[in-house]
């Protein structure tokens, strides 16, 4: 069994809220729904073998992750966080790591258990192409999906098909525009995202992943300035 939820996690969360609770920023609790925990702890090869030979191993491990994160959500729900973000990569650029059937039978019910313990607005993050399971994911009831990875998903198509159902978050290209592009290209991408994806609301503009040390500083600053310039469009 997993150990009980360590009180140090809760102490750190309380300290964070005490320090930044009056900052004017939205404060988020970031965790996982268990998907990445299972895949990372087993490794993809072992996960695949277990899926064929003994799925109960995966189910047991997944259930333990789910129990832990549900306890975390229950104990932090009234602390003062404004939203929850789950970061669980379950897809490659070409599609989900597992088949849609495996996702629906093995992953989705456990993710639904976690979602039932969320009392705040929440965001789901996964890189890669989620389209084969996108409708299944949206059934969990999150308010936003991140990052709509460039090169894996077409954010303009997602806006057309799902813009009335879900808020889109992210998509400014980290690996080309912010890293190898020019400030002018960054500004143009930000402008296009705000004018097209932001039309009618339902878009939180951001980079398509965490800002890294190899992003060009001038490009990151250009993104910031362009967001300020075009945000009223």
Which range best describes the helical content: under 10%, 10-25%, 25-40%, 40-55%, 55-70% or over 70%? 40-55%
Residue windows where pLDDT falls under 50 for at least 5 positions: none
- Anisotropy-based shape: globular
Strand arrangement, largest sheet?
Answer: 1-2-5-6-7-8
Number of helices: 10
Name the helix and strand elements from N-terminus to C-terminus, one letter apiece: HEHHHEEEHEHEHEHHEH
Q: How many distinct beta strands?
A: 8
Question: How confident overall, as mean pLDDT?
Answer: 94
Radius of gyration over all CA atoms, rounded: 19 Å
Distance between the termini: 52 Å
Largest sheet: 6 strands, parallel
Share of residues in strands: 5-15%
Going by helix content, strand content and strand pairing, the class is alpha/beta
């Amino acid at each position: 069994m997993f150990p009980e939820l360590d009180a140090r996690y809760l102490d750190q969360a309380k300290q964070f809220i005490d320090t930044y609770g009056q900052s004017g920023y939205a404060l988020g609790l970031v965790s996982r729904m268990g998907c990445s925990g299972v895949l990372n702890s087993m490794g993809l090869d072992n996960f695949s073998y277990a899926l064929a030979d003994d799925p109960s191993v995966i189910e047991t491990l997944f259930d333990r992750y789910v129990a832990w994160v549900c306890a975390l959500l229950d104990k932090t729900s009234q602390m003062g966080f404004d939203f929850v973000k789950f970061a669980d990569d379950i897809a490659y650029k070409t599609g989900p790591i597992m088949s849609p059937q495996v996702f629906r039978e093995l992953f989705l019910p456990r993710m639904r258990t976690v979602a039932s313990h969320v009392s705040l607005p929440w965001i789901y993050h996964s890189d890669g192409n989620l389209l084969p399971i996108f409708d299944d994911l949206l059934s969990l009831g999150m308010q936003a999906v991140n990052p709509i990875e460039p090169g894996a998903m077409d954010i303009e198509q997602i806006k057309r098909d799902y813009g009335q159902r879900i808020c889109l978050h992210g998509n400014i290209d980290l690996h080309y525009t912010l890293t190898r592009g020019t400030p002018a290209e960054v500004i143009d991408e930000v402008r296009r995202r705000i004018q097209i994806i932001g039309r009618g609301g339902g878009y939180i503009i951001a980079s398509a992943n965490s800002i890294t040390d190899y992003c060009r500083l001038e490009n990151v600053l250009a993104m910031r300035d362009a967001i300020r310039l075009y945000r009223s469009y």
